[in-house]
Design brief:
The structure holds 2 protein chains of 2 kinds.
Chain A lengths: L13 H28 L5 H9 L4 H29 L7 H28 L3
Chain B lengths: L28 H29 L9 H8 L2 H29 L3 H28 L5 E2 L2 E2 L8
Antiparallel strand pairs in B: 1-2
Helix pairs in contact in B: 1-3, 3-4
The chains are: A mainly alpha, B mainly alpha.
């Protein structure tokens, strides 16, 4: 039986998982961006075309999707700032783990605040 | 007994050619791409958080978004420039990110090449399309001979 590789400072720990999260959220955001430029481009076709397609963003299921997308964006943004700190701040590498917990804490606070506001607007009586 | 000769590490001629760095392409491209990711990243945090705040969290939020909403924003050069900067920086940042991922996971030379051709083509189309839309957009269209209402349109 092959044995499980031993953990290291990086492998299987905060450094690796934040890197995985950064990649996955990055790809998700990139594909949304392609779609979002295309749907916004419909303003150039006609007001009706744009208003019709943007209507698709206004149903309850999409509201949840938008909240998920914003969660991905906010994680990528805060973790990106952490990466910059690791690269450019003298003590960045030393405190990368603590900074990840700060990132996750700020992420939760931001997402809860966003979700309360966005979902109550999107799902509220209209 | 002769003293053991220890080669100084990583000095040019002692490294087998296949392990040598640089080779023919001695450009700074990868370093500049690395730097660009960090610089554009900081700017994008500001641009995208502002975008989300203004479009989703203020007033009626997403229910306020329709043709008139976009027209109202793009009647103002400030938002035209904001969205243009966001489009270019986000597309270049995202394209470079996906390029890195392709380089990491696609092992065959030809697979890497074609995936990147598809990526760069898609990115160019989206950037050019978005730029044209922002600058050729008419916020005050006349539909069936009727001027659409909007406070930013000339009467």
């Amino acid at each position: 039986m092959p044995t499980k590789p031993a953990g290291t400072l990086y492998r299987g720990r905060e450094g690796m998982w934040s890197w995985v999260g950064h990649r996955i959220t990055g790809v998700v955001i990139f594909f949304f961006l392609l779609v979002h430029v295309l749907d916004t481009s419909l303003v150039r076709v006609s007001p009706e075309a744009y208003t019709a397609v943007i209507g698709a963003y206004k149903n309850p299921l999409m509201a949840l999707g938008e909240t998920g997308l914003v969660a991905a964006i906010v994680f990528h943004a805060f973790n990106g700032l952490r990466i910059i700190a690791v690269d450019f701040w003298k003590k960045g590498a030393k405190y990368q783990r603590q900074m990840l917990w700060v990132v996750l804490g700020l992420w939760i606070v931001t997402i809860v605040a966003f979700a309360i506001r966005h979902l109550s607007l999107a799902l509220g009586g209209h | 007994m002769t003293a053991t000769q220890i080669q100084s590490p990583r000095s040019g001629s002692t490294i087998a050619p296949k392990y040598r760095r640089g080779g023919s392409s001695r450009s700074n491209f990868e370093m500049l791409a690395w730097l660009f990711m960090r610089l554009s990243g900081v700017v994008l945090v500001v641009l995208i958080f502002g975008h989300l705040f203004v479009n989703l969290l203020v007033g009626e939020g997403i229910h306020a978004i329709d043709f008139g909403f976009v027209a109202g924003k793009w009647a103002d050069p400030f938002w035209q420039f904001w969205d243009l900067a966001m489009l270019w920086l986000a597309m270049l940042h995202g394209t470079n990110g996906v390029r890195t991922i392709i380089n990491d996971y696609a092992e065959k030379d030809s697979t890497r090449f074609w995936l990147k051709m598809v990526l760069f083509t898609a990115a160019a189309v989206i950037i050019i399309l978005g730029t044209l839309v922002i600058f050729t957009f008419n916020p005050c269209p006349v539909v069936n001979g009727v001027q659409l209402p909007g406070g930013f349109c000339p009467a």
